[in-house]
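Journal club side-thread
Mid-discussion, someone asked how the predicted structure for our own chain would compare to the paper's figures. Pasting it here so we can look after the session.
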Amino acid sequence: MNGNRSGAHLTDDGVTFRLWAPAAKTVDVVLDRAYGMSRTGNAWFYLHVPEARAGTLYKFRIDGELDVPDPASQFQPNDIAGPSEVIDHGVYKWRVPDWRGRPWAESVFLETHVGTFTPQGTYLAMIEKLDHLVASGFTALELMPLADFPGRWNWGYDGVLWYAPDSVYGRPDDLKTLIDEAHLRGLMVFLDVVYNHFGPEGNYLGWYAPTFFSNSQTPWGNAIDYRVPEVRQFAIENALHWLKNYRFDGLRLDAVHAIVETGEPHLLHELSQAVGDFATMSGRHIHLVLENDSNVAGLLDPSTNPPCGKYRAQWNDDYHHAWHVLLTKETNGYYSDYAVPPQNIARVLNSGFAYQGEASAHRGGALRGESSGDLPPTAFVNFLQNHDQIGNRAFGDRLEAGTDSSALQAALAITLLAPMPPLMFMGEEWGATSPFPFFCDFTGDLADAVRQGRRKEFRSAYEKYGDEIPDPLDEATFKSARLDWLSVAEPVARDRLRLVRKLLTVRRGEIVPYLSGCRFDYATVHDGLLTARWVLGHGRHLSLLANISNEGIDTIERLPFGRIVWGERKKDRLAPWVVLWTIGGA
């Protein structure tokens, strides 16, 4: 990559502004007045302004007619249409300056949305809930995307200014304070980042840098063109920005299967290499995780530290889908590929993915995935719920809304004690029933397009329920997604939270210390009886026996050997939805 970097860069005697604008004839940086910028031969415009300093507000003026925010803006105090603010990341005094992170094997994630995690919806308000995370057994707080988005509320996947944490949640130092307080408590903090598209409002790159995009299409428009060196540099520097300036412990890359123009070498490889180099230099544990519908096992390597072109793990949608079909009996949409859920559950416990090169009927018979059984189990982040699987439903309803509690408890006992790093969605640890519907704050034609898109996606639900389905543009829809922390005191919630805390205590003491060198052994299911085994480190093995059906099962001569770490051994029959975990060996 070349030495040019987008944005506003503080120096000892002012600020240097840079912008890559190959289609622009002139560019001014607008402060108290317009200052003409110089152009280099490779389409970079630059200017040093001695009068500028931290806190200075500015815009770029393209060809004397269009004022735009800095695409590498560090902060937008007045939303995406306002001026960008020069930020000095060196002034924050970290309380845990020597934080180095935690090993990957210790990861237990709670995924959160800053705007709905607390009534206040701010970074600072989240701090008072960190002790709850620690007491519950989580080791990693994961934040949904923060890149500045239009409006007052959004899931975060419509971000257009990748370097600027959205101002609706607080200022940059507020985000640093949240991360600092998490590190004080031994919690890692991860950030969800989106490199497959920009949001539909407030992105001006196509005006002055049209080669940022190719003619290839994604679900959100023209693809970002990572064959272009400046574009590739922009994304890689963004990843490093979050890890360096905010000290995030890791990133989750959203929907990388939708990155169409990957370039050579593949963007994902070069980004991982750059992060690995930074991890080596800083002496920190830094973890990179993918969401990838294509199930490319070759991208995954949880054991190499630091990252060296690959990724620790992938969110395992196959695991979620199989359990969702078993628990809800839903087989519409992509769930149609998981019509025999017990066998799918056994396969993901046996070798990672359910689809490892087989044809997907939902995808028109296209082959999906790669063989994954040779990977360590720690290459797969397993979950029963996340923001997508709740929010991409007409009502944004959670599993608790219509699932047998015994079945759900069994699923939790399997998910939280299997060797794969588990993830829960905020409130799931106490069985929260508050919905998490899709919401955004667009206006005009774009708002109407979102409404129509949702009606098309959930046509049958709208035909049945009509206006009962939440309007994604209504403030009430956003407010309905806020967690009700008072509900934690209710008896059912206390019981669920007690169960999760016990399970994660067992995980921390009995399983995590032996995950180094862990590998798959086998998993089978027959007439509802699920058995599985994994080889752990230090000569141990972990075994599972579970009844994932509504009928009692004869278990004579099929009980696993070893010390019981969860459940109760019965001599003859296993009651419905009973889970037994044992550890054998040294």
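Post-session note: Residues 227 and 265 are 9 Å apart (CA to CA).
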